[in-house]
C-alpha cells in the first residue's frame, strides 16, 4: 500500500552525497506565491552524482573572479551613490550578523548611505533586541522599525500554524513585501539583500532584476491570494482582518511601483559570502553578540536568534520535510569546508531530535494555543512517507545516518 505524499514532496527520499540535506527541501518557497497549497512547488535539485544545487553552487564560487565581481559592485554603486546626503539604498535586516555585515561594509568601505529597515520579529529575544540596538548605535545607521499590529500578527501566526504548520509565514511575508513599499515611499531605487539564495539551493535567475520581474512582490489578482492558508476574502469575512490590516503582508498591487524602477541586488553575488566571517565582522564592527546558549536542535549560537519563534519554525520544517536546524547549519558549514560530512552526520544525530522547549510555553500562551493542540497539528502535517510511529514515538523512515526505520 503506497504512502500518502504531502506538499508535492519527492516520494523517494535521498540525501546529498556531499552535505546532509535531502531532496525533501523546498527550493522555491512557494509560500511567497500566496497560493492555497504547494502544488507546483519546487524542491532542491540533485545532479547525476546526487550532489545538491547548493553544494554545486559552493564549488562554482571557487571559480569566480571575486576581484572582477567587486569591480562590478563598485560600478553599480557609483550609479546610485548619493552626493547630497540622501539615502541611496535600503538594507533590510534585524541587526543580525548578515544585515550588520552588509550595511556596515556598504557604508564604510564603499561610501554608500543606506537606510536600514527592520520588520520586527514576532517575539523579540532579549539578545536579539540588544543586537538591533547595537547595530544602530555602534554601527551608526539610520533605521526604520516597523512593528505590525500585535493583534493582526498574532491572529495570522496562529492561522499559519493551524492551516500550514508554518509559524514564520507572517514574518516572511512582511519581510519580503513591505521593504519594496518602503523603498518606493522614500524614492530609494536600490535594495540590497545579503546572501544570494542560490547558497541554499534556491533558484535565482540572476543577481540584478527589476522588482516588476518578481511575481511574489507584485499582486495582479487579490481574489486568488491566500495568507496563512486563508483567502483574503475569508480573512475579511470570518476573521475580521481587512485590507488595512493586511497591507504590510501582501505584495504591492500592480501599478504601485510605476513611478520608480526598483532594483534588487544580492551582496553575496559581488563579495564572497561566508556566514562565519560575517559573524566575526559583525562582532567587531557593530557589537553583535551570539546567543548566550546553544540554539536548541542544533549546535550553533549566532544564526536566526532574534525571534523566540525561530526555534519552533525549524522544528516544524523537520516535521514537514524531515530536515531540522542542525541539518541546515551543518550543510552550510560543509560547503564552507569548516566541517566534514562525517562530522555533520554526528551533529545531526546528536542535536536534531531535540524539542525546542525554552520558549515553547511562552509562545503557546501568546498564541492562546494549547500544547496538546499544537502537537496534534504536528501529527496532522507529518508526511507518512517520511515518518513512522514506533512504540508511540515518531521516527524518521530515512535519515542521513541510515538509521531510520526503513533504512
Enter the CATH topology name of the domain at 66-270.
Rossmann fold
The major sheet is characterized as:
3 strands, parallel
Radius of gyration, in angstroms, nearest whole number: 21 Å
CATH architecture of the domain at 66-270, by name, is: 3-Layer(aba) Sandwich
* SS field, number of helical segments: 15
Q: Report the order of strands and helices.
A: HHEHEHEHHEEEEEHHEEHHHHHHHEE
Helix content: 25-40%
Q: Point out poorly predicted stretches.
A: 29-40
Report the sheet-strand fraction.
5-15%
CATH class label of the domain at 66-270:
Alpha Beta
Large-scale geometry: globular
**Main sheet: which strands, in order across?**
1-2-3
Description of the molecule:
The structure is a single chain. The chain is α/β, with parallel strands linked by helices and 407 residues long. It has a domain at 66-270: Rossmann fold (3-Layer(aba) Sandwich), CATH 3.40.50. It has 15 helices and 12 strands. A 3-stranded parallel beta sheet has the order 1-2-3. A 3-stranded mixed beta sheet has the order 4-10-5. The chain has a two-stranded parallel sheet with strand order 6-9. Helix 3 (97-108) packs across helix 10 (275-286) and helix 12 (325-335) packs antiparallel against helix 13 (341-351). It starts with 52 loop residues before the first helix and ends in an 11-residue tail after the last strand. The model is unreliable at 29-40 (pLDDT under 50).
